[in-house]
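Input (Tol-Pal system protein TolQ):
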Amino acid sequence: MDPNTAAASTQALSLAHLVLNASWVVQSILIILLLASIASWTIIFQKWAIFRSAWKALDRFEQRFWSGGEMSQLYHHVSGNPALEAGAGSIFCAGYEEFQRQRSKARSADALDAARRAMRVARMREVENLETNLSFLASVASVSPFIGLFGTVWGIMTAFTNIGIAQQATLATVAPPVAEALIATAAGLFAAIPAAVAYNRYLHDVDRLDARYEVFMDEFTNILHRQTPESQA
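Output:
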């Protein structure tokens, strides 16, 4: 083979050349997948920082909570402190405030129930904040392969069309559209796999944090119960 012809064939099948000379449908698909990948990676790094901060806040608060001391002092220390008033700290503040508000005008059991409801609302709010944008990762993970598959089908259809026009199946006729199809498939997987892995990992972290919050709610409820007149009688 002529070296110039071989070099031209290699250049024609290079990734950059195939993308730049692909059909507008394949190029549109690649752009969509690229934007989805950029958005998902942005969310992945943001959620990594958020979950890292949530675990640290939980450890700091639990260390301070179980170190002893009066609940009122702990409340004044935690309230308004961004490093502590997050996660379990937010749940503690909500429950303590509601318990102090209700204990002077309601029965102890009612005050405990009100505190429990306030902590449940605060817990749901914290979990909702942790779950923000996870649905987008799930959508990218599930939809991207099908978007790439559409590009694959379009590339194969183009290859068969070129064969019909040329009346013969040569490498120059078949290779470019088939390569476009494979690029679309790879782009779909490139966008989907990191999003799927991150979604499953962060969803597991949400479940673990939620379980820790629920355990703290039960323990704090027991502490509040021991402070009621009925339990001290």
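The longest helix spans residues 171-226.
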